[in-house]
Amino acid sequence: MEISKFQKLMYELYAHNDKRRGGKATMLWLVEEVGELAEAIRREEPENIEEELADCFAWIGALANLYGIDLEEAFLKKYPGVCPTCSQKPCICTD
């Protein structure tokens, strides 16, 4: 699935709830999911890691929709095929 199709799906499924909730509360949901992802990684639970990554991605889509940001466009602008810091592929940054 392309990022734009993913973002459209998230809009169709959840925009009505996201708009009602607002950006700050939606961000808190994302933070909660990141915490759940961290816990799944700490416990080394591959199936749960997969699920939590999907949840995080969905909440990022929700935030992008709330703020009118095209994730695919934003990603390609920030990451144009090279590292945004060292401008190399692969990255040669030390950290």
Describe this structure in words.
- The chain is mainly α and 95 residues long.
- It contains four helices and no strands.
- It has one domain: MazG-like (Helix Hairpins, Orthogonal Bundle).
- The protein has helices at residues 3-21, 23-42, 46-66, 71-78.
- α2 packs antiparallel against α3 (46-66).
- The radius of gyration is 15 Å and the shape is globular.
- InterPro entries: MazG-like_dom.
- One of its GO terms (molecular function) is hydrolase activity.
- It comes from Methanosarcina acetivorans.
- This is Nucleotide pyrophosphohydrolase.
In the CATH hierarchy, the third-tier topology is known as Helix Hairpins
Structural class from helices and strands? mainly alpha
Low-confidence stretches: none
Separation of termini?
A: 31 Å
Q: What is the residue-averaged pLDDT? A: 97
CATH H-level superfamily: MazG-like
Strand content: under 5%
* Beta-strand segment tally: 0
Overall radius of gyration? 15 Å
Count every helix, treating DSSP H or I runs of 4 or more residues as helices.
Answer: 4
Number of domains: 1
The largest pleated sheet is described as: none
- Encode the helix/strand succession as letters: HHHH
Helix content: over 70%
Query: Regarding CATH, which class?
Result: Mainly Alpha
CATH architecture: Orthogonal Bundle
- Which geometry do the CA atoms define? globular
Keywords: Hydrolase
InterPro entries: MazG-like_dom
Organism: Methanosarcina acetivorans
Domain NTP pyrophosphohydrolase MazG-like: 24-86
